[in-house]
Design brief:
This protein is an alpha/beta fold. It contains 11 helices and 12 strands.
Length: about 325
């Protein structure tokens, strides 16, 4: 089999091996592929691996040998899955590979939002503590999590893991999810998106990006929330209207926005969040532990093997 990986740069470092893939056929791995080069590089590929490279309907139509697309991620919004189905191309993702890693980062962001450890560390480095009369000083009020309400938007693998990781802090949980209520963790009740923003002290976005939830966090939704709300996004940047979030932060209508994802990645230097108060942005690192990336490679190899045996797994649809 001819296997081409169009953008493997972020996956293979720190000792993460591509050996499970190379055992399956003739494998070519490119660090990155510009849009203009996708068709040429993938022209004869029967199996195409992508992470963030976009595969449009037009691109897929120009790849007659292609039988399988494996997305080296959970989200597959960069692949026109409907077009792939019309062309008889199977699309698989790597569901579940990053569950614990992303939940861990979500917890880190939440704790930064309520405790502001990074800002206090920077303050003491500046000498602020050394200049104090008393043994302790506070710059902002901290929020004790015990008994507070946290809303999780999206109760898939990662959403459930976020609940599991945060439960020891004594939080109460609600969720915004279309899943079967019987699949919800204990003592997690479903609510509407509006109710979540109206009542929760913390909202964590953990849902996939779809056409019907693009910019779902907008001016209207933010008008419902408490001015102390901590909003965390480890899902997709385009779930929020970044201009609206920046305005809410500047105007004191939102407590904090902590995100590992932006609508444009890498972002423009004039991204409105970069100049907004209490906006904390990490560079899409939630997925990137060595353990999670090793799992991606293994899942990719398993997906290919399963497809070749006639029993494809992790198949996604539009």
């Amino acid at each position: 089999m001819k296997i081409v990986f169009l953008d493997g740069y972020t996956l293979f470092d720190d000792g993460v091996s591509d050996a499970p893939l190379r055992a399956l056929g003739h494998v070519t791995i490119y660090d990155r592929t510009e849009p203009a080069d996708v068709v040429a590089r993938a022209a004869d590929a029967e199996i195409l691996l992508v992470n963030k490279t976009r595969l449009s309907a037009d691109t897929l139509a120009h790849l007659p040998a292609l039988r399988l697309v494996c997305v080296a991620a959970t989200g597959y919004d960069r692949v026109d899955v409907a077009a792939a189905a019309r062309l008889g191309i199977t699309v698989c993702n790597c569901a579940g590979y990053s569950t614990q890693s992303v939940a861990q980062l979500a917890a880190s962001l939440i704790l930064e939002g309520v405790d502001r450890v990074g800002e206090y560390a920077a303050s003491t480095r500046r000498g602020d503590w050394s200049e104090q009369t008393d043994f302790s000083y506070t710059l902002w009020p901290r929020l004790e999590l015990e008994g507070k309400l946290m809303a999780v938007v999206g109760m898939g693998h990662i959403g459930r893991a976020v609940v599991r990781v945060m439960r020891p802090f004594g939080l109460r949980f609600v969720c915004v999810s279309g899943c079967d209520p019987s699949l919800l963790p204990d003592e997690v009740t479903p609510v509407s998106l509006e109710e979540a923003f109206r009542t929760a002290q913390i909202v964590s976005l953990n849902c996939p990006l779809r056409s019907d939830n693009y910019h779902m966090v907008d001016d209207s939704l933010l008008s419902l929330c408490s001015p102390s709300l901590v909003l965390v996004n480890t899902a997709r940047g385009a779930l929020v209207d970044e201009q609206a979030v920046a305005r809410a932060l500047h105007e004191g209508r939102l407590g904090a926005y902590l995100t590992d994802v932006l609508e444009q990645e890498p972002p423009s230097p004039d991204c409105p969040l970069f100049s907004a108060p209490r906006a904390y942005v990490t560079p899409h690192i939630g997925w990137a532990t060595v353990e999670a990336r090793t799992r991606i490679v293994c899942i990719l190899a398993d997906n290919i093997s399963a497809f070749l045996s006639g029993s494809p797994r992790n198949v996604v649809s539009a």
